[in-house]
Amino acid sequence: MARAIQGLRNPTISPSLDKQQFYSNPVEDWDPNLQQLDVVGKQRFKPGTMVEIRRSEITAHGVVLFDIPIEGQWVVHTLTSGGEVWAHGEQDVMFAVSEFVPIDLIKRCGVNLVVQSDAETYARVEVLRRLRGLVVAQERKLVELFYPLRQIYEHFKHRDPKQWSEITTDRAARFLDPNSQTPSVVTMFAVHSYLFARYRQFVADRMNFLTTRAFWIRPQQDVDDISAVDSMVLDKDPRLESFIQKAKRLIAAAKLRTLKTWRQPMSYEQDLENKFTPDDMRIIRYMQSTLRQQRTIQANAYIVSLATIMKRIGGYDLDRYDSDGVFRLLVDMGVLSPWQDQVSYEWSASESLGWQQKMQTSDDLSARGASPASLPLPPRRPLGPNDFYSHDVVDSLRHDFGDMPVYVIDDVQAHELDDGLSIERIPNEPDNFWLHVHIADPTSVLPPSHFLAQRALDRNQTSYFINRTIPLLPLDSFGSLSLRENASQRVMTFSAKTGSDGRILDYRVRPGIVKNVHIVNYSGIDSAMQWDVPPFSYPFGVSKGSQPLPLDLDESMRSDMSLLREIATRVSRNRVKNGAVTMLNPFVTISAKSENFPQVPPCPTAPYLWSGFPQLEYGVNDQRASESGARLVVAESMRTASRVASMFFRDRGVPTIRRVVQQPTFLKEEDQERLLTARDESGFLHLFDSLDIGVMFSPAEYRLAIGPHWVLGIPEDEGYVRVTSPLRRFNDLLTHWQIKYALLAPTHPSPCMFDNAWLTQFARNLAMKERRDKRIALGHEQYWAHVLVERWMKERHLGWRDGPDPLDSLTAIVLSHSVFNSYRQQYQYHALIPELGLKARLAARVGADTIPVGAKIAVKIQSLALGFTPLITVVPKPGST
């Protein structure tokens, strides 16, 4: 081993094949829209920690030597069992044992990729000797537990052969040794390795594995389908040949029909001339089961047989071997509709099959037979799971706002109208005003014991897809709870007395009644008030129907709107004074001209014939769009209400869940001043202008203790509690219950419906669910954006689009240093295409490895791939580097 480590000092020695393959796939968790606003803190691994890292279906064991900040993230450097030092992200770690090697021994290893002395060589040899001891012990434990391990699937799989279930490493280890509540590290390592290796039966949690240590257990039907199709492929079964020939016929007809109905409205009918046999349906079901996002931390149970079938059918890009080609094939075969996408399809399939919605946060909960997502909400009243409140429990506390105007400002197409604003002038204080934020009050009807509350807990929030919306609450099941005109309505009101300098001078939280509601829309207010807002860019054109709708505002409403904007501006400037930073980075927004997407029943025994495609618009903007004009008024009011809610809980000593963002880590003392100085007067800072500033942004976290929200400029003694969307976010709903209980029992020793222990568990689960939901939403938007770019390219190729092509003048802004992909023999960079609002992979051939971070380069599109992680690959135009 010493010779091998010394040999790595030779610059002519190529990296091992495993290391090259490990780096062949880019970091799977990277996205500029998420990395600085994440809700799950990245785990730091101290030097001396034993780690297992996985990527690109490569597994390596090693010990952490050091980590360093690179491009806003901590990059771990691990001494692997082969003697090489691999640089990787924290998200690549799947198993860790802290303090595995003493820190003094790690220090003697040095902080270089290759050893610089004999002393460093001997130290690294000793580290690897200890690592080898653990790996050997794990291998022996696997042999010892061979037969018990084989019982795990049969014992824990769902009784319904079509349903998923889940298990954690800890729970499996306790199953093997029920008398031990704390399995040994060796046992845990052995169970962990076994479950990863049995990828046909167990699928590792792709987002938070190191936190959850959870595996999804495949349904027995899926396991049987994999075996059956593998046998068909291996035996060249005639049934498979029959399916392939049928698929070719259906696909050829579908491609012709797609071109003929390219711009027609969406419609479908059943194919009366073709039928699917039971064997066809098994193969189709097998293909559908591949349409679940999976990281390359684990082998793919489908890849060999699926690639064989796809190659036999032909006509689809097999370069990436991902779900993109399968999805397109199933659309062309008439199984899935072309106005679906993989992200929303997986979400729907997951909900119906009972997987992915419930997520554990720690394995000690498994020992008690429950996970936070399924914990019963603690009822305080003798109500059954189908019982609503028989009366308004805080009726005696409600403040009647009388005829005070309440302005509900939202998008034209919005359905869940859950917030309204009022302004109250103070006669003897001309510079101070009361801002009242009125929030819809579903908790006036819905108790936490109701089954709809439990379902909302599992669902976490409303999911907005282009083709449909899945609400948190089925609002039509117990009356309209959205704010509406010409009605007396119950609300929860969060009031802030604001001063001329934008500070909150006083606050009130109370149940209320509002009667004088005016529903208006953002664009109409901006147009009527002549407020300047950053226009959206529409690279592929915009329809006439997208222009702002005019509003007729009387003088009183104009006065209120002007004052609301003045208050919002004051409060915003105060936050900027306190250090608020809003990172600007172009993003894409896809909107549908119609929400009436045909809802297609699952394919029974015959394919469907698809026609047409939805009318979608492709817009590009940045965060200034939501911080200008009427949107600024609403956004700042909602932030103010969340600050008021935090102060309410603070002053009463009632526990609640706060959203906390600590101050970033600055690599140099002057970097903080550089960051704050680089902002404009509104606190905006372009992502590209911060690339050379040594800053490591802290992720958002949910916790009970009061703390700052550094990004928003909210001080530590004030805090931030989300309360403004109880129709769309379960956390807000929960907080409303907590507020009401505190109001009803102000002198109770513990005036809370949810105690610290339950809230702590919920907060941990909320962070992971929100991370998941953000990625689903972003993936959905990104998918349709890439679809529209692809369709534009197709239309230009067919000669259906005249005039200038926006894709001819693209630029890429480089966001990272290069990584060499040995398989493609090219250097790859993370980049953004501002004209499209999309991330991209910039590929440059050998010799172009010195493109600096922040460089702006003219590029052209080389390829476009869809799937769960759609990606445009661009290459520099000649002479641009």
TrEMBL record:
One family name in Pfam for this protein: RNB
UniProt GO BP: mRNA catabolic process
UniProt lineage: Eukaryota, Fungi, Dikarya, Basidiomycota, Agaricomycotina
One term under GO cellular component: P-body
SMART domains hit by this protein: RNB (SM00955)
One GO molecular-function entry: RNA binding
Domain spans labelled RNB: 398-745
Protein name: RNB domain-containing protein
Organism: Fibroporia radiculosa
Source species, domain of life: Eukaryota
Residue span of region Disordered: 358-383
